[in-house]
Amino acid sequence: MSILGDNLRIYRERAGLSRRQVAEYLPRTVQTIGQYESGYAEPSIATLCKLCELYHCTPNDLLGYEQRRTTRNGSPDKQTLEYLKS
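The chain above was modelled as a monomer; its predicted structure follows.
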């Protein structure tokens, strides 16, 4: 599994949608949705954006990306610097 694949499944289930419903919305095949969720394939950026609209989330949510904080001058804050050092 992949972070993206896991998150695609989690957000689909939270939305109460089946793979078939998502496939019809995109449009893609049910098998393709399964491949996205299992990590065997990745959606295009355009498809990722459509999934975000459907699931009411951001690409960062699906990709598992957490933006690091910065100080007012744009440099990383202390917590981010510690993370980068580790």
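The longest helix spans residues 3-14.
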